[in-house]
Description:
The longest helix is centred in the last third of the chain and has 68 residues, at about 85-155. Residues about 1-20 have low confidence and may be disordered. The chain is mainly alpha-helical.
Amino acid sequence: MAGAAIQGAASGAASTASSDTAGNANTAQYYTDMLFRSDHAPHGDAALTHAEIGRIVARGIIEGDMSAADKAYVSQVVARETGLNQSDAEKRVADVMQQSKTAMVDAADIAKRDADELRKIAETASLWAFVSLLIGAFAASYMATVGGRSSDEFPALGGATTRIETASWHGVK
Length: 173
């Protein structure tokens, strides 16, 4: 039992460390992307541009909103990649960020509701465990009383005779 707890704690710490490392790598990549932003069309792969925009949007979701510079850059790239005019691209970026905020609030609400439901289940299970242990304690006490009386009433089963013999063996008369 303790080994499983230690193993669980170790795996949890390892996953936290790896997610922190991944988060730090994404943060570093985000700032690296900032260094190479340009007003000109990229000469490279569109997948790289989409990955960069994905990191910017992810950071905006985590922080709650994008900075003005990030919004302007993402809108510019969206306009360039989709053929939209700048104002429509800005509206699209704002709409996507609003949708992401709504999704985050919904996810938080679902998590709170699930946590509350689990708390209620744990509370009920704890109450029933207490009741069953209490009933078991009373049953054990009652059966000990019954067993003690039956050994006193039936000396052939080793009750009072054994106590008398044991007392005389110890030098008590």
